[in-house]
């Protein structure tokens, strides 16, 4: 996919350091070799160095050039425990508890990112989305001016006339079950930024609903309307509009009838779903019925990038998510 080539080129041009906390896992070890060989990022593998080197040897791959850090023996572990304690003491975490928690590679990697010892983190080949996001939400937290961490899918429908030559961003399809209007506004702004940074798009953001510009009245519609107003007032420089039905968002002839004065209707390339049920179902419909390529979920809104993998991922998928994370860190 051309977009992924562009993301690789961006990652190579300004190399960042990415931590892989699942360092003792086969696909991560294979990915590490490919990432270093292609110059996409500098890599830190978290795990026991002897185990990792033995696994690499057995797999016939090299982890040369990667830094390997074991929380059990690292001289950084005490500092990381203290950092964790300082951040979470108001939530009842004691220093002793922090010393235990930080031995968990996901927490160790997250503190590493928090302190700037790594620029970003990728995990999830053997952990759930919640396992990965929770330490990130607790420790790295949201970027200034962003109220929620959310996610975006880059959807590519070959040959489609919609979006930017078949390329659209969908959000939020993976993190926030039921965002309120303020959170929905924040998700829209984050996704517009992701569209610019990762895809080089001029974002046209549609706030989706079952109503177009007042055609229906319901509290669910009102939420989207309020979110649209908030997002527009916070970022008047962005093209954001709503509430819009899906067809009015992307089909010019429908837009001309239903929202003739909108700068977004008929041209949307960023689709913001009102909640996670709609978003998660929506991206999977397009992926299956339109045979779209779905890259993601790409996490957005963290102060420093942390990205999730599917547990069914391949080593090549890990390489691509590392490239995306490296570009987000730039
Ligand atoms: N943005 C910012 N902060 C957040 C967010 C968010 N979206 N969600 C929770 N937080 C904060 C909380 O305020 C809390 O902060 P505090 O501890 O400092 O007070 C901290 O993060 C932990 O919050 P919890 O409520 O304990 O976390 P929770 O158990 O709800 O986990 C999670 C958060 C994992 C994101 C949860 O919302 C979730 O499971 N979402 C759905 C994930 C999912 O199943 N997706 C569908 C599958 S993915 C797919 O199909 C591609």
TrEMBL record:
Highest taxon listed in the record's lineage: Bacteria
Domain Phosphate acetyl/butaryl transferase per the UniProt entry, residue ranges: 3-326
EC number: 2.3.1.8
UniProt xrefs under InterPro entries: P_Ac_Bu_trans, P_AcTrfase, P_AcTrfase_dom1, P_AcTrfase_dom2, Phos_Acetyltrans/Butyryltrans, PTA_PTB
Gene3D superfamilies for the chain: 3.40.50.10950, Isocitrate/Isopropylmalate dehydrogenase-like (3.40.50.10750)
Any Pfam family matching the protein: PTA_PTB
Alphabetic keyword roster: Acyltransferase, Transferase
Pathway: Metabolic intermediate biosynthesis; acetyl-CoA biosynthesis; acetyl-CoA from acetate: step 2/2
Reactions catalysed, as given in the entry: acetyl-CoA + phosphate = acetyl phosphate + CoA
Entry keyword Nucleotide-binding: no
Record keyword Protein transport present: no
NCBIfam families (alphabetical): PRK05632.1, PRK09653.1, pta
Family in the record: Belongs to the phosphate acetyltransferase and butyryltransferase family.
Listed name of the protein: Phosphate acetyltransferase
Species assigned in the record: Clostridium malenominatum
């Amino acid at each position: 996919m051309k977009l992924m080539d562009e993301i690789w080129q961006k990652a190579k041009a300004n190399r960042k350091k990415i931590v892989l906390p699942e360092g003792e896992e086969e696909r991560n070890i294979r990915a590490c070799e490919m990432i270093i060989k292609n110059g996409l990022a500098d890599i830190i593998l978290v795990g026991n160095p002897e185990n990792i080197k033995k696994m690499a040897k057995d797999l016939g791959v090299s982890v040369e050039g990667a830094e390997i850090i074991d929380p059990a023996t690292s001289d950084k572990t005490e500092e990381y425990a203290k950092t964790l304690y300082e951040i979470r003491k108001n939530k009842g975490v004691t220093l002793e508890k922090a010393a235990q928690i930080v031995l968990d590679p996901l927490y160790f990697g997250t503190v590493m990112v928090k302190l700037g010892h790594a620029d970003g983190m990728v995990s999830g080949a053997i952990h759930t989305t919640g396992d990965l996001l929770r330490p990130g939400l607790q420790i790295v937290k949201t970027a200034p001016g962003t109220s929620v961490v959310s996610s975006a899918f880059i959807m590519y429908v070959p040959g489609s006339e919609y979006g930017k030559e078949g390329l659209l961003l969908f959000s939020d399809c993976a993190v926030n079950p039921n965002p309120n209007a303020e959170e929905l506004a924040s998700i829209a702004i984050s996704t517009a930024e992701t569209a610019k940074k990762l895809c080089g798009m001029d974002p046209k953001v549609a706030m989706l609903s079952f109503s177009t510009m007042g055609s229906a009245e319901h509290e669910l519609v009102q939420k989207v309307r309020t979110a649209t107003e908030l997002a527009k007032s916070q970022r008047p420089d962005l093209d954001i509009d709503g509430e819009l039905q899906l067809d009015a968002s992307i089909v010019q002839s429908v837009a001309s009838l239903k929202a003739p004065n909108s700068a977004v209707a008929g041209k949307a390339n960023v689709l913001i779903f009102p909640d996670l049920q709609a978003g998660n179902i929506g991206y999977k419909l397009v992926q299956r019925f339109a045979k779209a390529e779905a890259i993601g979920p790409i996490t957005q809104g963290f102060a420093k990038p942390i990205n999730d993998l599917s547990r069914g991922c391949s080593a090549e998928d890990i390489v691509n998510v590392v490239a995306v994370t490296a570009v987000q860190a730039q």
